[in-house]
Amino acid sequence: MRTSAKSNTFAYTFPAIRGLQAGREYYVSMCPLRLLPRLFQFDDEELQPELRAQRTLNKSRVPEIARYIVENKRDYTFSAITASVDGDVSFQPVGDDADTSFRVGTLTVPMEARFIINDGQHRRAAIEQALQTAPELGDETIAVVFFIDRGLHRCQQMFADLNRHAVKPSASLGILYDHRNAAAKVAKHLSLTSPVFKNLVETERSTLSARSRRLFTLSALHYATLDLLPEPILEDFPHASQRSQEYWETVCEQIPEWTYVREAKMTAGEVRKDFIHCHAIVLQALGRAGRCLYEQHPKEVRKRLQRLRKVDWSRSNAQVWEGRAMVGGSMSKSGLNVTLTTNEIKRVLGLTLTPDEQVAEDAWMASRAPAKKSTKR
To answer: By its UniProt entry, which CDD domains does this protein fall under (predicted)?
Structure first.
């Protein structure tokens, strides 16, 4: 911060690089994390959307991002924040570089100028929250791209343009590249080493086409692993890997179609078309039932899992699976459907339902009961 001789007002000064985009100048600088809450304020969320240049802050997302920063202080990663500056800024280049479209220098912004975040408001809010727990991060920096404010219309258009082509990576790809998450590590290990899953897991996409030669997705295996293993075991990689291998190999023995695909007796597309047992909802339900099995009957795991061989997993078995794993003949991944599918697997394995599972089961049974005809007296 310094005093501007020209206007005799206080101003922020940023070492910056000036660039040119769409015929307009913009600036890239580094901002200390401790200054973010002071510099960047949010629009009044009580204003109607058409009068704001930002989306409403989703406060439920902020704690998770803040926790990510604090728990990974040595290797967290953030992309740049994009902001518009509503004020009389000036840029003083260093030297006499002939290329006027690209220069290093100093960006001066009056303190009364207003900063509007076009992209990164959740990062900014999370950083502010993280600094309360870890103030030592205050001197670290984040890249900021400054555009000169051209009014509300331009700011809204920038927000639309910045988010127009933003595509979130698939859940499977995010899991593949995640080296911190314990369940992700186990799922990736299974996909590479398990005779059940090796060469049959799609690691880049979270949906499978009819012609795909993969039988499972990495995201489905990941969520099944989360439901199968309690936290203490999940954090113990050797133990988690061993239990997962043993469990899924035993399950595979009871579902011959999984082996048929590996032996090229059936295609993955045929199995996915005619059966439900390789879909994400059933894999997750098998994981959830497996955890209960280890808790209730740890010495009878293999024996009880053999009962799965008698299950009719075909899509045509609508009497059992419609309303549980399927809705209108299509697979459903809602939380309620996962619970109802788990309930059926638990029934086969002779396991006790939790109170919440019993409530869901009672409601499902009531919905299937034939309506009683009213009688006139």
So the answer is: dndB
Identify whether residues 136 and 187 lie together within a single domain. no
Residue 109: beta bridge partners?
A: 12
Whole domain around residue 249: which residue ranges?
Answer: 171-368
Name the phi and psi angles at 169, rounded to 5. -65, 155
| Cα 258 from chain centroid (whole Å) | 28
Question: Among 164, 190, 207, which residue terminates a domain?
Answer: 164
Q: Do residues 142 and 36 make contact, with C-beta atoms less than 8 angstroms apart?
A: yes
User: Do residues 23 and 118 share a domain?
Assistant: yes
Reported pTM: 0.76
Size (the chain), residues? 377
Return the residue matching tokens 């049959």. 200
Estimate to the nearest angstrom the gap between the alpha carbon of 223 and the chain centroid: 12
368-373 LR contacts (CB < 8 Å, sep 24+): 368/323
Stretches where the chain sits below pLDDT 70 are 1-9, 42-55, 96-102, 150-156, 159, 162-163, 165-166, 371-377
Locate 88 and state its tokens: 């009389």
